[in-house]
Amino acid sequence: MEQYNRYDNQMKDQREYWNNAHSQQWLHKHSSEKTAFAEEVNKLLPPRSTMLELGCGEGNDSIYFAEQGHRITATDFSDVVIEQNNERWSHQNLTFKIQDISQPFDFGDASFDAIYARLALYYFTDKTTQTIFKEIKKILKPGGHLCFMCKSTDDHIYGQGQKIENDMYELHGHVRHFFSKEYTLHLLSQVALEVESLVTGEELIYDRQSAFIKTVARKPIQ
Ligand SMILES: C[S@@+](CC[C@H](N)C(=O)[O-])C[C@H]1O[C@@H](n2cnc3c(N)ncnc32)[C@H](O)[C@@H]1O
């Protein structure tokens, strides 16, 4: 119980942490461009896919998907960034909405052809992450794609700060759950999502060399 309360408090802090970062337009200082991952995902999606984005931040990828013809609901738990996005971006294919990933999703079953999450699914304990993957599977259409990118256990800041649980640390007020290849495969197999590709590597993320794991998985048709 002590562990649960500690985690619960941390998640409240995380909204504060991100609202503060977004108030200072922290992400914008590093990039206001679509990302390489969004371009890779766009190539594999059927035209005019119905998409959900989790943890959209400043919406650089959201507007890109909308301009490519996909209909996208882009979500974040930060009311600050959602308000900024509504002022910055306007497109008929794009809707912004507040959604905390750790809370039950406010979407019907089998609503989306694709769920896209770049640097958004690696903030939660194992228990919560497993629940999130179950929710994701529910709201994906059969044959739909889950495309997500997380920092990996090979990242240079892995292990720094206060340990919360396996592969999860708080550093300077920021909680991260680093994903290994094994953990990613385990999460997907638990909910019977089929792996289409899993790539590990390094690239600049917000101007810092970082180790990532990029995954595309598919909900079986049957
Ligand atoms: C590292 S940024 C990534 C933003 C964007 N996807 C990108 O790739 O630039 C993480 C984003 O996830 C959001 N976030 C963190 N925890 C969240 C949660 N529990 N529910 C929804 N969004 C969350 C933050 O507000 C932030 O915008």
Features of this protein?
alpha/beta; binds S-adenosylmethionine; three-stranded antiparallel sheet; disordered N terminus
**Ligands bound to this protein structure:** S-adenosylmethionine
- Strand element count: 10
**Coarse structural class:** alpha/beta
Can you tell me the CATH superfamily?
Vaccinia Virus protein VP39
Domain count, please report it.
Answer: 1
Which bin fits the share of residues in helices?
A: 25-40%
CATH hierarchy: architecture: 3-Layer(aba) Sandwich
- Helical segment tally? 7
Largest sheet: 7 strands, mixed
Q: Report Rg.
A: 16 Å
Mean of all residue-level pLDDT scores: 92
Q: Low-confidence parts lasting 5 or more residues at pLDDT below 50?
A: 1-8
Lateral arrangement of strands in the main beta sheet: 3-2-1-4-5-10-9
SSE arrangement, N to C = HHHEHEHEEHEEEEHEE
Report, as a whole number of angstroms, the end-to-end distance: 39 Å
Percent strand:
25-35%
CATH topology: Rossmann fold
What general outline do the C-alpha atoms trace?
A: globular
What is the CATH level 1 assignment?
Alpha Beta
Walkthrough of the structure:
This protein is an alpha/beta fold. The chain has a single domain, classed as Rossmann fold (3-Layer(aba) Sandwich), CATH 3.40.50.150. 35% of the residues lie in helices and 31% in strands. It is built from seven helices and ten strands. A seven-stranded mixed sheet has the order 3-2-1-4-5-10-9, with helices on both faces. A three-stranded antiparallel sheet has the order 6-7-8, covered by helices on one side. The site of S-adenosylmethionine (SAM) has 18 residues, from helix 1.
